[in-house]
């Protein structure tokens, strides 16, 4: 199966925290996955953004079990 998004992530909003996963699978290499948790505070969200950017994540899906927007 062809990998469509080799550098992607998922953010799951759960109350006052965010669970973040990233998955990186470059050509012909095994997938690399990491997970982080952060609070919904500006400084922690900025750190989360930096983490995703450092891994060159190009696509992120966001899931929220409850509508929190």
Mind sketching the topology for me?
Blueprint: E1 7-14, E2 17-24, E3 32-39, H1 42-54, E4 59-63
Parallel strand pairs: 1-4
Antiparallel strand pairs: 1-2, 2-3
What does this structure look like?
With 69 residues, the chain is α+β, with helices and mostly antiparallel strands. It has one domain. The chain contains 1 helix and 4 strands. The protein has a 4-stranded mixed beta sheet, with helices on one face. A hairpin with a 2-residue loop joins strand 1 and strand 2. The longest helix has 13 residues. The chain is elongated, with a radius of gyration of 13 Å. It starts with 6 loop residues before the first strand and ends in a 6-residue tail after the last strand. The model has no long low-confidence stretch (mean pLDDT 89).
List keywords for this structure.
four-stranded mixed sheet; elongated; 1 helix; 69 residues; alpha+beta; single chain
Spatial ordering of strands, largest sheet: 3-2-1-4
Number of DSSP strand runs: 4
Distance between the termini: 35 Å
Return residue spans where pLDDT drops below 50 for at least 5 consecutive residues: none
SSE pattern, N- to C-terminal: EEEHE
Q: Structural class, from helix and strand content?
A: alpha+beta
**Rg from Cα:** 13 Å
Count of structural domains: 1
Query: Which descriptor suits the 3D outline?
Result: elongated
> What is the helix content?
10-25%
Total helical elements: 1
> Beta-sheet strand percentage?
35-45%
The biggest sheet, with number of strands, parallel, antiparallel or mixed sense and barrel status, is: 4 strands, mixed
Average per-residue pLDDT, rounded, comes to 89
């Amino acid at each position: 199966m062809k990998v469509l998004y080799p550098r992607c992530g998922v953010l799951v909003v759960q109350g006052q925290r965010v669970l973040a996963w990233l998955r990186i699978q470059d050509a012909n290499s095994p997938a690399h996955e990491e997970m982080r948790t952060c609070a919904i505070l500006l400084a922690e969200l900025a750190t989360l953004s930096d983490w995703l950017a450092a891994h060159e994540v190009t696509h992120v899906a966001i899931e929220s079990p409850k509508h929190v927007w």
